[in-house]
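Researcher: Next entry in the queue.
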Amino acid sequence: RSSETLDVRQNPDLYGMLWPTLFPYGVGMFDDPLRTSEGFRSIHLKTHVKHYLRNADRRFQLHLSFIFVMQSIQMLRTSSFQSRLAVRRSWWPRAVAAMDKLDEHVLDELIKKMGRTSPYIPEDEHEQVMFKLLKYVDYCSEYLDGSTAQVLAMREEIRALSRTCGTPSIFFTLNPADAHNPLSSFVAGKDIDLDAPFSNPDSHYSSFTRARSLAANPVAGAQFFQLMVDQFLHTFLGVQRGDRRGVFGRVRHYYGVVE
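Model: Structure for this entry, 259 residues:
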């Protein structure tokens, strides 16, 4: 334990210290500078994590903290390096005037005050300028999964489809019900008989047991969900058929959102 924070970028030894059981030989960690040298191919962090989560031994899938910590690191990097500030064109002159009056020391003190008091009311002219700037400037992070900016971007895509192709003809809510499907047990690594799909192939697994297996292995739950969605789109709606015809006829466009 230490009061100093550790750098999670270009620091492969950190992951070996975090999870010695996952990297017992001290190799294969993320952001290894050796991969940037000649003769090696650099691997993006997200691609590297996905590769480990697809390993057959499932040790990365079943680890209690690996998925959550790596998701937090990925979101931190995305919010830091793939985000931007946006200002409406009509507000640009006022935003520039407010930025010219910014004072670094006043900003540091304002952050501390806002952390202690909520809601905070500006006390002087400099703090009022800070609040005006917050009004004029928006933080955009459409690359960050689950962010408000991503939701707004999806909303604009739906509006664009509606303007181009008309309003949707049908709305459909899909619930794969993973705790009631034998395939979820198979994806989670359970030994079930897939040759007897109509004879309760996992009869010794209850819905509660399946739910526990998926809670212990969230990757299996994600794989099962992806399998069900693909089957619904490709087979039920027929979007990958030659004539693109399914149960509801020819599907021209579709748009799906995961809750």
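Model: Strands lie at 84-87, 137-140, 245-246, 249-250.
Researcher: Noted, moving on.
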